[in-house]
């Protein structure tokens, strides 16, 4: 959460001429704001909507594309199975990197109260799943968006080369 997935994903997709899809934006377009979904249906209701949207996006992708998932989307076992056929990138962001983002963004229902403490708890809980699913891990601390895009490009090119080397 707040690692920069949408920003980096959009930048990477634009640079490489790929389609970019942000599942949170698709959810908002169809169902209203995320805080309003949480208020009406709770986290469980939101996660059900999210899992359906992620499944629809991933199954509809018929060409290489960049898909940004909400930070908790990977908690769904169905989503985890769908991601097995994708190159999954984990943006490993530390507290100092995300602190300004989470303190200025009050629209994140899971960060109500003490956003720093809530983020730390979610990070501790989700990190093992992120690491298990990731094909590529990008450490974001102290790096510009362009540096991260360059690093990701090099890593994906290497993976592609490895796949095609007998």
TrEMBL record:
Belongs to the shikimate kinase family. GO terms for molecular function: kinase activity. Catalyzes the specific phosphorylation of the 3-hydroxyl group of shikimic acid using ATP as a cosubstrate. It comes from Arthrobacter mangrovi. Keywords: Amino-acid biosynthesis, Aromatic amino acid biosynthesis, ATP-binding, Cytoplasm, Kinase, Magnesium, Metal-binding, Nucleotide-binding, Transferase. Its EC number is 2.7.1.71. Mg(2+) binds at residue 6. Pathway: Metabolic intermediate biosynthesis; chorismate biosynthesis; chorismate from D-erythrose 4-phosphate and phosphoenolpyruvate: step 5/7. It comes from the Bacteria. Substrate binds at residues 24, 47, 71, 126. It catalyses: shikimate + ATP = 3-phosphoshikimate + ADP + H(+). ATP binds at residues 2-7, 108. Its cofactor is Mg(2+). This is Shikimate kinase. The keyword Magnesium applies. Pfam families: SKI.
